Batch of 2 targets.
Target 1
Amino acid sequence: LAKTTQPISMDSYEGQEVNITCSHNNIATNDYITWYQQFPSQGPRFIIQGYKTKVTNEVASLFIPADRKSSTLSLPRVSLSDTAVYYCLVGGYMNRDDKIIFGKGTRLHILP
Amino acid sequence: DSGVTQTPKHLITATGQRVTLRCSPRSGDLSVYWYQQSLDQGLQFLIQYYNGEERAKGNILERFSAQQFPDLHSELNLSSLELGDSALYFCASSGGGVAKGYTFGSGTRLTVV
């Protein structure tokens, strides 16, 4: 499983666009990039997944450059309820030794 | 409702005791993963089962054990409990690894007193 590096924390204000970047230099050819959101005392929740270029859904956009060594989660017009920890996960379909390691994530704090 | 069911939601027990946490995966998912999350800490991977067999192990203590039954539900057994075992324990299920995504349950909050 590719190791990921994210900022430990970020602050932003309501109504702003927030971009969280994840580095994954040793991403493999068959790896996908997935982002999860976790609120306090709740299990992580799937936000978005991509393989290359750009993916957009009703919640966020995911930008992946051609070399795929990084990815950026973009949250448009954030609100206070977007305050959460965001995890970047990189991996493919299930392998034999599939230790799914969530890093420390990025603690996003939205200010009024 | 994520489709992954964890019981009980809360558990308070004394040091030295043994508890069992239960997880029912989302329908069709063969893999179950257990995680421990202490206060303000990240998710610590404990163990994974796939269709009844242990598939991967993380930093799971010897006092902890797990199994997955033929109906695919899983149980995490924690014994000789210590104060430091107090945490949220999450179960997740998947149909095929990262690329298929993980669905998490709402967790069991264990308090050891």
Note: The radius of gyration of chain A is 14 Å.
Target 2
Amino acid sequence: GENVEQHPSTLSVQEGDSAVIKCTYSDSASNYFPWYKQELGKRPQLIIDIRSNVGEKKDQRIAVTLNKTAKHFSLHITETQPEDSAVYFCAASKRGDDKIIFGKGTRLHILP
Amino acid sequence: EPEVTQTPSHQVTQMGQEVILRCVPISNHLYFYWYRQILGQKVEFLVSFYNNEISEKSEIFDDQFSVERPDGSNFTLKIRSTKLEDSAMYFCASSAGGAGLRGYTFGSGTRLTVV
């Protein structure tokens, strides 16, 4: 089955700098890649997603890139702010499967 | 904004006891899911449910687990004989068009503690 690897497990960046979180997936049939943000003690919330027919998607300070050949996808957060501190999960799903497989998460700390 | 509602928020149970976790998905959603998250770890898929039947389940979802949609609004997860390792946060989720179409909306979770 699908396996999603995510790194780093922890990331600290200065406020205002950019943060990049990287994921790889194993199943070349995967075609949907959502990213979730989970604040301490709260539910995961979808922040952005990308499909395999698109190489990049941007929403304000957040962007996601996808390299289907290498089976890599990444989350980029620019101009980081204190409220960006959270755990971020990448995930993958494929057509015909009714589930999303999550990576292990990246704990992002925004330093003042 | 529509929400997925879960009750209770926290449940403590003795090992070997049965528990039922309850969820009210978003009203026009047709696909329902349970995930669990052991403290500090990743979110793990348990089961998906569509058209009144299980569409997929993981190896975690063994005979001790069952799901039911007893009426038009509730979606429940039952654990028949809880084990210590069942202690986790359990998230219900729902989707309008399936996992790969629009992603999920998660509920706020039920923290299950087995003692």
Note: The CA atoms of residues 60 and 78 of chain A lie 9 Å apart.
